[in-house]
Design a protein that fits this description.
The protein is of the alpha+beta class and 185 residues long. It has one domain: Alpha-L RNA-binding motif (Alpha-Beta Plaits, 2-Layer Sandwich). 14% of the residues lie in helices and 30% in strands. It contains 3 helices and 11 strands; from the N terminus they run βββββαβαββαβββ. The strands form 2 sheets. Strands 1, 4, 5, 6, 7, 8, 9, 10 and 11 form a 9-stranded mixed β-sheet that branches. Strands 2-3 form a two-stranded parallel sheet.
């Protein structure tokens, strides 16, 4: 079984209860599924869950280089030089990121409002980036955009392989056919 879940902001990527916090158990009542990878509590969007250990490893392992597409709302107006740095890989101190896809986009048309909304500051513009990574280090997108001078305000994972969050409302999930040849390429 493979489940696509649109994880809302503030939800912790685990099933065990945590006082005063929402976890996956509050939304997904399917027994024996576990997240294939994770999203930070302050990130939103696509999270895949499965009951198949080898499939879970294939999705989560950087060795399989499964593309993960993110939409990042950043503070400021990223320059072409900053985008080039993101594309070439960014030195984050303890490691250098792999090359990534990076481009400016308009705010995604089917993006839902965030609850709570991000802070708005009238004198500081924001912009949207689309980033495609084939690795997944802790808080990587946020660290990359901050390193090139444009901190992330909102982060949404839009797709993993060919599985997309499109059409899934926040907190909604659907079953995906993991055997479909298009699903996890």
């Amino acid at each position: 079984m493979l489940i696509a879940f649109n994880k809302p902001f503030g939800v912790i990527c685990k099933f065990s209860p945590e006082a005063g916090r929402h976890t996956l158990a509050d939304y997904i009542k399917v027994p024996s599924v576990y997240p294939a990878g994770r999203l930070d509590t302050d990130s939103e969007g696509l999270l895949l869950l499965t009951d198949d250990g080898p499939l879970q490893a294939r999705i989560a392992s950087p060795g399989h280089k499964l593309a993960k597409l993110y939409w990042a709302q950043v503070e400021g107006a990223p320059t072409e030089a900053a985008l080039t740095q993101l594309r070439n890989g960014v030195d984050l101190g303890e490691f250098r990121t792999q090359p990534a896809g990076a481009r400016r986009i308009d705010e995604p048309a089917d993006l839902w409002p965030r609850d709570p909304p991000i802070r708005h500051r009238a004198r500081i513009p924001t912009a949207w980036l689309e980033l495609t990574l084939r690795e997944g280090k802790n808080r990587q997108v946020r660290r990359m955009t901050a390193r090139v001078g444009f901190p992330t305000l909102r982060l949404v994972r839009a797709s993993i392989g060919q599985v997309s969050v499109h059409g899934l409302a926040p907190a909604a999930w659907r079953e995906i056919d993991a055997a479909a040849p298009w699903a996890l390429k």
